[in-house]
Amino acid sequence: MTSGGESPQVRLLVDGRDVAPLERATSTRARSKGLLGRDAVTGAFWLDPCRHVHTMRMRFAIDVALVDRDRRVLHVQTMPPGRFSAVRLRCRSVIEAEAGAFEQWGLVAGSSVASSDD
């Protein structure tokens, strides 16, 4: 716990490196809403379970990573509003971030991802 009584912020790890704050969407409602209605996302947004996403009614472009059960990135793409992501049979979860974030973080197909509270 932090001194203010708040729990420490969960972080996204890429190949063992701490790269960004992480928000998780694990309930059906949170996964359905995703990033809709937002003007931006700070850090990463991890939908689990999830096999693919769309950017219909989104206000900004996002980077999308399709992740397998071993938390290995299968595919990475940047999606403008109004698109559907690729589909990969082994995909079990999806990580989203603002367009350009993955390049800064070094997140590519083959990367290993985790959260700091795993």
Terminus-to-terminus distance: 16 Å
Number of strands: 7
Order of strands in the sheet with the most strands?
5-4-6-3-2-1-7
Mind telling me the C-alpha Rg? 14 Å
Classify the helix fraction into a percent range: under 10%
Count, helices: 2
Mean pLDDT equals 92
Q: What structural class is derived from the secondary structure elements?
A: mainly beta
Quick one: overall form? globular
Strand content: 35-45%
Biggest sheet features = 7 strands, mixed
Pick out the low-confidence regions.
1-5
Order of helices and strands: EEHEEEEHE
Word description of this protein:
The chain is mainly beta. Helix content is 9%, strand content 36%. A seven-stranded mixed sheet has the order 5-4-6-3-2-1-7. Strand 4 (62-68) and strand 5 (73-79) form a beta hairpin. The chain is globular and about 35 Å long.
Short structural description:
With 118 residues, the protein is mainly β. The protein contains two helices and seven strands, in the order ββαββββαβ.
Helices and strands in order:
Blueprint: E1 11-14, E2 17-25, H1 28-33, E3 44-47, E4 62-68, E5 73-79, E6 91-98, H2 101-105, E7 113-115
Parallel strand pairs: 2-3
Antiparallel strand pairs: 1-2, 1-7, 3-6, 4-5, 4-6
